[in-house]
């Protein structure tokens, strides 16, 4: 009788360690998460961004940097998004990034005229 009662009462299950640690200290949870990659003396690659305001056209500089870093073919919208992200990381304001993107519109296709209106 006593054995049956003991079997029916299940002890409360403890949560997993990583979730407990994440609630307690997010910084320590990230250390725990990357514990296999982090080793003493590991060198973290620093990214060099061209300095803000030193170039007349930062769009071209970031475009070349992204093309060198990601040699695989990338469509124009994705390339523009990457350029905008890199410019924001370098310290450009949202308005400066928008203005720079507006100054460098994508090339028109062969049959398209500048004054041509797109009809839906």
UniProtKB/TrEMBL annotation:
Pfam families: RepB_primase_C (PF22448). Residues 74-112 form the RepB/MobA-like C-terminal domain. It comes from the Bacteria. InterPro entries: RepB/MobA-like_C. This is RepB/MobA-like C-terminal domain-containing protein.
